[in-house]
Task: inverse folding
């Protein structure tokens, strides 16, 4: 169950948070003990991961594309700037966030998208040179996508056909508490983790953030509220929204594994919609062109 031990001259990743848009949503979508009618404004966080020895740059998740005209009609019924379940805010996009540190989509070698929901896929068409990395279980969803299926939530052209790798997650070996993970660079610096439960093809990232044992776990939509990770609340399944996860049992099993991961020293976990982390760090040095500091070896 241990995480891989660092080798001599261990490679690692420098991780920077990126703004990916914000939106308000009912708490009742996410947690069982929500106050009826209460809405929270939550981020859609993205991340830039830069290998310390290699030139490749990876972005994990692309946040929200603010251009509603690009969404299928089924999405536009629930997503908008007013009077919808998900109400978008006029905030910086992932691409605008990259530009703050002098980067553009053309500079990004890999885009790893945690899953195919609108608040994570951003503007995929802007990344014209990137290789897309997605969980292979999502591939069948595109067989009945928009516009072939007018009521589908996903566009059939969401990912570039010639630059998308559908990852065979169930073929990967175990890593720590997780049954399947892929050593992407082959040097123990960055792992893509099979993260079942939310939607087919959902993946997370576990990356080293120092050569001496610090890690970061980017949990995407494994949970939508920090109180679920702590066990203070539970996943909501009641009407009017039902369960936010396609398979609640698998989602809970994966959340339990994240809790196991938190028992290892120097592991920080960040959710895609991590409002406590965002409130503490918004506008600070954790955002590009700054970086998220590794957890220290001997915290005070």
Result:
């Amino acid at each position: 169950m241990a995480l891989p031990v660092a080798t001599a001259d261990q490679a690692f990743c420098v991780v920077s948070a990126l703004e990916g848009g914000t939106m308000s949503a009912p708490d009742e979508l996410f947690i069982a003990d929500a106050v009826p009618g209460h809405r929270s404004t939550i981020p859609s966080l993205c991340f830039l991961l830069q290998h310390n020895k290699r030139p490749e740059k990876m972005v994990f998740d692309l946040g929200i594309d603010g251009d509603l005209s690009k969404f299928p009609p089924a999405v536009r019924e629930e997503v908008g700037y007013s009077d919808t379940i998900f109400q978008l805010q006029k905030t910086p996009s992932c691409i605008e966030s990259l530009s703050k540190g002098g980067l553009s989509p053309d500079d990004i070698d890999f885009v790893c998208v945690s899953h195919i929901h609108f608040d994570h896929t951003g503007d995929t068409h802007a990344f014209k040179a990137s290789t897309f990395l997605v969980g292979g279980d999502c591939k069948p969803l595109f067989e009945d996508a928009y516009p072939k299926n007018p009521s589908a939530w996903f566009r059939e052209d969401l990912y570039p056909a010639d630059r998308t790798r559908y990852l065979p997650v169930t073929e990967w070996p175990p890593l720590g508490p997780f049954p399947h993970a892929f050593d992407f660079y082959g040097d123990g610096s960055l792992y893509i983790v099979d993260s079942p439960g939310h939607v087919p093809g959902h993946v997370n990232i576990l990356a080293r953030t120092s050569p001496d044992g610090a890690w970061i776990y980017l949990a995407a939509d494994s949970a939508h509220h920090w109180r679920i990770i702590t066990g203070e609340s539970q996943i909501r399944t009641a009407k009017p929204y039902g369960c936010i996860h396609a398979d609640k049992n698998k989602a809970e099993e994966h959340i339990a594994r994240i809790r196991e991961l938190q028992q290892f020293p120097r592991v920080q976990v960040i959710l895609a919609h991590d409002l406590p982390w965002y409130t503490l760090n918004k506008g600070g040095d954790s955002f590009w062109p700054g970086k998220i500091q590794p957890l220290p070896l001997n915290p005070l």
Observations:
- The radius of gyration is 18 Å.
- The longest strand covers residues 13-18.
